[in-house]
Amino acid sequence: MRTQKEFKKELIWFCGHAQEVFKSQPTRRFLHGSFIRGSMVEPVGTRPIRTVRCEKFDVHKNPNRFIRVIAGYTLMSEEELGTNICIKEDKVGKYIMFKGEDETKEESCTWKMMSQ
Question: Could you count the other beta carbons within 10 Å of the beta carbon of residue 31?
């Protein structure tokens, strides 16, 4: 059983890496991850302002849940994985797609992303 101190250390480590992802992918809205300790898995989700933990489970006692979690991640769309799908990128740069007054036509507004 891990101690509260060990958990805090792992959480700080995880949040540090998540912060790097959000910094390098500024259009990302959230991030999925898991703490894996031995046979115990604890799925987590994080946004730039908070982290949400899911109920941990033992892979040996519940292998079907582990398969569902991993398969779920592989089958997720870009939007479900946290990517903001309104922001597109091509050779010219990044731009935002939105529906104009004519709902059948997508229009774009180009913008340059500023480095932080």
Answer: 20
